[in-house]
Amino acid sequence: MTEQLAVAVLGAQGRMGIEAVKAVEAAADMKLVAALGRGDSLDTLLDAGAKYVVDLTVPDSTEANVRFAVEHGMHAVVGTTGWDAERLAALRGLLAANPESGVLIAPNFALGSVLASAFAAKASKYFESVEIIELHHPNKVDAPSGTAVRTAQLIAAAREEAGVPASPDATNTALDGARGCDVDGVRVHSVRLRGLVAHQEVLLGGPGEQLTIRHDSFDRASFMPGVLLGLRNVASHPGLTVGLDGYLDLGL
Amino acid sequence: MTEQLAVAVLGAQGRMGIEAVKAVEAAADMKLVAALGRGDSLDTLLDAGAKYVVDLTVPDSTEANVRFAVEHGMHAVVGTTGWDAERLAALRGLLAANPESGVLIAPNFALGSVLASAFAAKASKYFESVEIIELHHPNKVDAPSGTAVRTAQLIAAAREEAGVPASPDATNTALDGARGCDVDGVRVHSVRLRGLVAHQEVLLGGPGEQLTIRHDSFDRASFMPGVLLGLRNVASHPGLTVGLDGYLDLGL
Amino acid sequence: MTEQLAVAVLGAQGRMGIEAVKAVEAAADMKLVAALGRGDSLDTLLDAGAKYVVDLTVPDSTEANVRFAVEHGMHAVVGTTGWDAERLAALRGLLAANPESGVLIAPNFALGSVLASAFAAKASKYFESVEIIELHHPNKVDAPSGTAVRTAQLIAAAREEAGVPASPDATNTALDGARGCDVDGVRVHSVRLRGLVAHQEVLLGGPGEQLTIRHDSFDRASFMPGVLLGLRNVASHPGLTVGLDGYLDLGL
Amino acid sequence: MTEQLAVAVLGAQGRMGIEAVKAVEAAADMKLVAALGRGDSLDTLLDAGAKYVVDLTVPDSTEANVRFAVEHGMHAVVGTTGWDAERLAALRGLLAANPESGVLIAPNFALGSVLASAFAAKASKYFESVEIIELHHPNKVDAPSGTAVRTAQLIAAAREEAGVPASPDATNTALDGARGCDVDGVRVHSVRLRGLVAHQEVLLGGPGEQLTIRHDSFDRASFMPGVLLGLRNVASHPGLTVGLDGYLDLGL
Fold first, then answer.
1. How far apart (Å, rounded) are the C-alpha atoms in residues D248 and D241?
2. CATH number, domain A111-218
């Protein structure tokens, strides 16, 4: 029988942390050995025998947490934001000195969302036209969403590399805002609607055909399969990986 | 056996006229008695015994065509644009003097599109949020589409009458255009994509639920069922009717 | 200032009841005066001064609850199942003797779902083809859903009344089940997918066009606007009303 | 300046052939040197200096056409059906003796459709649930479509290889056909609707999320970008390639 992964969750009282605790407990191949909240000592991880750390804390804490994990031979799966270029460089240095540890830093753990963005970018050079519609609950304060911006950037880069010209558009009379916003040449439209959570559609069009890649996130639970996939693969990916797509088998 | 309707098509060489000729010829309850193009004399209608006229000409011709039809006791189904308030007033006067004639002027003959707009307006007072996405081929020069503007106006009027507040929106940071344009308080987003024809989605959202009403127009043929429905009903609707919805049984 | 409605929730510890308690408490024009669970005495309603009762209990209790409410001059909004023809007849008799009370029995309180079914039935006589796709979570034990069956029946009745022939279908070679099931001549397809809650699409097709009416229920909260709408309207609808659509302004 | 590809279209009077002639004529990097119909001699290809052949003929002719092309040092892009295992083996033998010729045999030239199937198969091992809905015009005689069957087979193979269990389904009471048909364990639903052309949706679901990959084919023109892509790449792919995906850059 395979040994269970000994997992500790940091930030266990946060909204994501609560879900992660449940997900690890429910996974047959994992064992939750510690669940730390604000103020708990990292030494608890050693006593508990943790080999894997899930960091879902806050930007102020995440760097020290990951450093502690790596220095003690653990692997880390990180969903906390705040990893700027400087922090990433320092972490790479640390990992060079601890070559057996793996760290995954993922801005987005929703498998479907990561796949959708990758597919959209890959397909975009085969179509004349591409636009993005993202739809969220009306309490969201920014538009467009960060995921939509990243998707547009991936698409723009793929099209530029392939030498695909801009999407055709004969519009010469428009109400202000009708054609959405422009992210690196890709039009993005932001819908805000009560009842929704987080949704995104990439529309790709060519003569006589359309390809639509849509992702719906209904619930925070949608991030957990990605967290578990990260835990199962982080040990076999020593060093730093940024982005869950680094662990996905997307070669076709 | 029921007598066939004696139908003449004006503007028979135009794109819509060609479809109308085919549709009338294919309808078992109709007989095409004349198909007039630019320069043909309206007197041909009398020789041919036309009782019903379909006008799919140009703004410069349509008023004289309809006047001729009404003055000679025919009914008219009109898809030509250019009927401003002055022309409509004059036509109402003419019809008052010819009370047996019926005239239908319809800016949109696509049954599905007319139904979609009516349903969206009716539903809109029961939902907190409503937005419109319209999608067209990239050769379209205006944004948003005329149909989207009219749908937004119908929705805005229905919500105002019912005292429904504006759709909630917490956006405080946005790229220019991300949230679409504003038509009477309703957000409208215009997508332009190769491969598309004419499509519209009205999204209505409330706590935990969404209602979506979408219409796709793939082909000019989509207007013909509406033209035929107009011809079959115009005689029983003497006077002027503006909008195909006046002939639809939409009471629920 | 308008007086608040004095509302009691029966079945307040059930999943729906918990939502109803929250919704009534959050409504500015209502006051929650009682929240009864299994075993609580109905006499509590009198002491609390309840004028409106929301019954979200079980088939074994609902009839006695509604009888008590009507006999004591209250109005009742009922979401519990189990109201067969015999029970409805008895209730009509009771209401004839208590003509000031109103009772609404609604199998479905999701406004969007009720509207979607009504719109689909109304539109269906204008299109050659109609099919239904319903999509639910994979724990659902029956297929198709009750809502899909009712929608298909409404559509079938509307088309029969209008003399619309069956949807065209040239299929002569099919894998078993490919074309869905047949409900009164309407094809219904049932999708079961992890992550979904309750969703339904009615697809209507004619030459060159499609009308799609889709309802998504993401959350039990979607039923509460319908419950509140019922409470606000039940007093002005004395006697028995079956179906929330009886209170909706659907005339177009 | 790059030399234009000298292209001949075989089956030039068929529905696909007519589109191919137009597409080749419109492509700046190609020159149409011959357009052959039924009964025309293949020797015309030599006189015309054809270097590339598009075969859109019939199963009875395609093998001889391709053989002629290969034996005369041309490359061939083939959309005709009828290439069974025996014919493919013979063609491989022929190409072994003519190693500079490339032949592409593609059952489907719609880029978007090929991409959609590849993406769906790739994604399917990351989701608990997967189902397919295909939608076509009502004159189609078979259900499900060949593309849906192939997509289901690709998905089933990908999931089996990854050890993913069957999609969960608690259905224990169903009307006959409600849950669609079963293709290698994947549920497929076939909708037939007037107004549609050829459409397919793959729905993938996990906890709290859904990924939808949809392809719409509105028009035969949708096949032409794939034919042109085939022509542009066939010379650099000597030997036999089956399936347009062999030429697509799908590594992610």
1. 12
2. 3.30.360.10
Q: Is B225 on the interface with C (CB under 8 A)?
A: yes
Are D3 and D49 in contact, with CB atoms under 8 Å apart? no
Please give the distance of CA C221 from its chain centroid, rounded to a whole number: 14
Q: Which of residues 128-187 of A touch D (CB under 8 A)?
A: none
| CA dist., res. C144 & res. C1, Å (int) | 47
CA distances from D175 to C82, C147, C157, C193, D167 (A): 22, 14, 20, 18, 20
Task: Encode chain C (252 residues) as per-residue pLDDT tens digits.
Answer: 578 999 999 999 999 999 999 999 999 999 999 999 998 999 999 999 999 999 999 999 999 999 999 999 999 999 998 899 999 999 999 999 999 999 999 988 999 999 999 999 999 999 999 999 999 999 999 999 999 999 999 999 999 999 999 999 999 999 999 999 999 999 999 999 999 999 999 999 999 999 999 999 998 788 999 999 999 999 999 999 999 989 997 764
CB contact under 8 Å between C175 and D182, yes or no, is: yes
Instruction: Determine whether C185 is exposed, middle or buried from the number of CB atoms within 10 Å of its CB (0-12, 13-18, 19+).
Output: middle
Which residues lie below 8 Å from residue A176, measured CB to CB, with a gap of 6+?
B177, B181
Q: How far is CA D201 from CA B198, C145, D204, in A?
A: 20, 21, 10
Selected residues 188-207 of chain C with any CB under 8 Å from a CB in chain B = 204, 206-207
Question: Which other chains touch chain D, taking contact as 3+ CB pairs less than 8 Å apart?
Answer: A, B, C
Q: Which residue matches tokens 């689909």?
A: C120
The second-level CATH assignment, the architecture, of C5-105+221-247 is: 3-Layer(aba) Sandwich (3.40)
Q: Give the length of chain B.
A: 252
* A190·B182 Cβ contact <8 A: no
The token pair that represents A184 in the structure block: 């690196």
The chains found to touch C (3+ Cβ pairs under 8 angstroms) are A, B, D
Domain boundaries, chain B: 5-105+221-247, 111-218
Of A114, A123, A65, A120, which Cα lies nearest the Cα of A217? A114
Q: Which residues of D touch C207 (CB under 8 A)?
A: 194-195
ipTM for the predicted complex comes to 0.88
Contact C155, C124 (CB under 8 A): yes
Neighbours of D75 (CB within 10 A): 25
> Rounded CA gap, A232 and A24, in Å?
11
- Which tokens is B232 given? 């079959």
| Disruptive mutation site among A218, A220, A222, A224 for chain C (greatest number of C CBs within 10 Å) | A218
Q: Flag if D143 and C178 touch (Cβ within 8 Å).
A: yes
Name the nearest CA neighbour of A222 among A147, A110, A113. Answer: A110
Spatial distance between the Cα atoms of D29 and D32, rounded to a whole number of angstroms: 10
Contact call for residues C106 and C77 (beta carbons, < 8 A):
yes
Sign of CA dihedral B84, B85, B86, B91: positive
Report whether D175 contacts A83 (CB < 8 A): no
Identify whether A189 is a catalytic site residue: no
Q: Tell me, yes or no, if B140 is annotated catalytic.
A: yes
Which residue in the list B31, B51, B136, B215 is annotated as catalytic?
B136
- B174: nearest Cα among A114, A110, A148, A169: A148
Rounded to 5°, the CA angle A216-D184-C145 comes to: 50
In the structure encoding, which two tokens stand for residue B42, read together?
């309206």
